[in-house]
Amino acid sequence: MKTVFVTVGTTSFDELIEHVTSAEVIQELKTRGYERLVLQVGRGAVLPAADSCSQLKLEAFRFKDSIVEDMRQSDLVISHAGAGSCLEALGAGKPLLVVVNDKLMNNHQLELARQLHTDHHLLYCTCSTLTETLRNMDLSVLQPFPPGQPKNFANFLDKALGLK
Questions:
Q1: Is 57 helix (H, G, I), strand (E, B) or coil?
Q2: Domain limits of the chain?
Q3: Most exposed: 33, 67, 70, 111, by fewest CB within 10 Å?
């Protein structure tokens, strides 16, 4: 079953959960052949019920000891732009669409997403452009992130955040 896994990490990003479960986004996912939507909603106030989506099989949870299996079983990961979530998805070798929370002050998430996009490792958008990004996305342009090199990722983060 073609699956999308959405993660907000340990944060609260209700706007992402609301957008990804909107009729427009659900229709776009269905059009692209996705049949299952798994949501990790973190500390957010929004926890959609399994029966709230008639077009896709919906599962939602707050936290698990590990989301490795959820990522492994997914065909697309939609994530907030936290460095840990990005690294986990890229390390799993899954196509990644990062949704930047543009409401955050001093938003380093945008810098990280922009650099990883420039290097062709992920696609990124905001909540307001999520539907359009899904409609136009071409996952074939994405290149794998070199695995097992935490030092390289740390250097990459420093570069993306302007620390080097």
A1: strand
A2: 3-160
A3: 33
- Return the residue matching tokens 């949501």: 39
The C-alpha atoms of residue 144 and residue 13 are separated, in whole angstroms, by 26
- State the architecture of 3-160 in CATH terms: 3-Layer(aba) Sandwich (3.40)
In the predicted structure, residue 164 carries a pLDDT above the cut 80? no
Residue 77 · residue 96 · CB < 8 Å: yes
pTM to 2 decimal places: 0.88
Q: Name the token pair of 47.
A: 């926890």
Does the pLDDT of residue 102 top 70, yes or no?
yes
Edge-to-edge strand ranges of the sheet holding 96-100: 57-61, 36-40, 3-7, 76-80, 96-100, 123-126
**pLDDT for residue 106 is more than 70:** no
Spatial separation of the C-alpha atoms in residues 140 and 162, rounded to whole Å: 29
Question: Residue 49 burial (CB < 10 Å; 0-12/13-18/19+)?
Answer: exposed
Instruction: Measure the CA–CA gap between 54 and 64, rounded to whole angstroms.
Output: 25
